[in-house]
Amino acid sequence: MSRSAPGAGSTPTSSARVPDLLPDSPNRLYDREQVEAYLAGKPVPALPEGVHPDDLLSAGEVAGILGISTGTVRAYATSGHFSPGVTVHGSRLWSRREVLERRDNAPGRGAGGGRRAGEPQGPRKAHAYEGDPRLDIAREALTAAGGAPKGRVAAELAALHGSTPRTWERLLTAVATHPEDGALAD
Questions:
Q1: In whole angstroms, what is the distance from residue 179 CA to residue 47 CA?
Q2: 129: number of Cβ within 10 Å
Q3: How does pLDDT run across 61-90, given as a tens digit for each residue?
Q4: Rounded to two decimals, what is the model's pTM?
Q5: Helix axis angle, 70-79 relative to 59-66, nearest 10°?
Q6: Do 168 and 138 touch, CB atoms closer than 8 A?
């Protein structure tokens, strides 16, 4: 499989074309036995049918098996989250065995690997600031401000109590949209 296309100047007598192993690749790869038969003018043998664990797969084929994009395959290979594969005539390839092993035993699965599908996630907060003691301050300021713009109230709270005006705007929004929440809700 690691043979490149027949070179210029060779004029095989057989009219059968050697099928490219990676038709979607910018680099052409051919099966060695097929190329040798082609160059010798003998009938070109058919490629084996079915799959084999040692088959070399392109990034597109790997992506299809793993259910990710080809860009993610390349990024994982570059960053070390996946093997770099082997480069054959400019094409990066991975063995089917390695890809199936990765699919069936992906990192993060198994003992200590996080929440499994269908398991409850536990209680969620109603909003990002639920339980924040600054909500009481924001609630009082919002009530006292009447119709003052929220940006002005937030700037005054930031000057008095610290944090940024944007944080206080978020706290004021949380109070306005969730008026029933207590400051120290569980």
A1: 70
A2: 20
A3: 899 998 899 899 999 888 888 888 888 877
A4: 0.44
A5: 100
A6: yes
